[in-house]
Specification:
Elements (H helix, E strand, L loop, with lengths): L4 H42 L4 H43 L11 H24 L2 H20 L1 H11 L2 H34 L8 H49 L5 H50 L1
């Protein structure tokens, strides 16, 4: 297996990644249309009491939503197929039928841990590795650019409230990854002991050691939860502060006659549309770092197997 995760992804699914990326571009371009349609409905059709225009814009809005939703459905199903193909490929590489020589509890235990739990994280990331970044990154840039063109000062308020996240997200994610790697090592050790005991290669497991391993897994999981949900709390807090900031600045401009109510509505909608892809990008970063840790451990296990086979 290649040393880098993305090298492996490109080797096994290059064509799929290109097609998924093209679909992602189409999805995020369609996702921009409702912002402008909302603004036109509020500022144009409603304020001017133009019923015919209201009907046309509403029907167009429904059409855009259906097209975007259908395309996204196809994108997600396609991603799922790429994910499952990657999972199958990795599991087959660890097939017990291809193992020669005497049974080895350590290798069997590691194989069980990889096949049952570790493969899913790597395969799941492969399905979304490029298209997720294209979709949410493109949507984030496009929506923010639209907000800058519409009202630069309100866009600046939104940007300032996003900046602190660039500081605490990498710090917390690094701490999560360290504990995730430790958890994998403990789970592998536990799998090795279970295989050894089941094959009657040794006596019953030592109760104290088993309890310590289960306790270590519990402790590491709780540490991960505290950091993961703490990160989500801070992100949600900053998002709500952004909504308040835009309402205050937008309301100030409306009172002074420097902008329209529809523009403020579009900004609130735009901030929500920024928050969703931003949260998805944070999850993407989390999944990527987690998949890198697990891929490195899987590649090391398969590399050791290849060394043993040539020895």
């Amino acid at each position: 297996m290649p040393q880098g995760l993305f090298r492996y992804i490109w080797r096994v699914s290059a064509r799929d990644q290109i097609l998924l990326s093209l679909l992602a571009v189409m999805v995020f371009l369609l996702d921009l249309a409702p912002l402008e349609l909302q603004r036109r409905i509020v500022n144009g059709a409603l304020q001017k009491h133009a019923l015919e225009q209201l009907i046309q814009l509403s029907l167009l809005y429904v059409g855009v939503v259906l097209a975007q939703g259908g395309l996204k459905l196809f994108l997600n199903v396609y991603r799922g197929s790429v994910t499952e193909a990657a999972n199958r490929r990795l599991r087959l590489q660890l097939s017990p039928s291809g193992r020669d020589g005497e049974p080895d509890a350590r290798k069997e235990g590691i194989d069980i841990s990889i096949i049952v739990s570790e493969v899913e994280a790597v395969g799941g990331f492969i399905g979304a590795s490029v298209s997720e970044a294209v979709l949410n990154g493109g949507l984030l840039i496009a929506v923010f650019g639209y907000m800058v063109v519409l009202q630069p000062w309100m866009a600046a308020v939104a940007a300032v409230l996003f900046l602190p996240q660039f500081l605490f997200i990498p710090f917390l994610q690094r701490a999560i990854n360290q504990r995730a790697e430790q958890r994998i090592q403990v789970l592998r050790g536990l799998s090795i002991e279970i295989v050894d005991e089941a094959a009657e290669r040794r006596g019953p497991r030592e109760t104290g050691r088993y309890w310590r391993q289960v306790g270590d897994i519990y402790r590491l999981n709780m540490q991960i939860y505290r950091r993961k949900f703490g990160m989500n709390f801070l992100m949600n807090l900053l998002h709500q502060l952004g909504v308040v900031g835009i309402l205050f600045v937008g309301g100030w401009f409306v009172v002074r006659g420097q902008t329209e109510v529809g523009t403020v509505v579009a900004f609130i909608s735009g901030l929500n549309r920024i928050n969703d892809p931003w949260g998805d990008l944070v999850n993407y970063f989390r999944d990527m770092t987690n998949a890198r840790v697990k891929y490195r451990l899987i590649a090391a296990a398969l590399g050791d197997r290849a060394v043993d086979a040539t020895a």
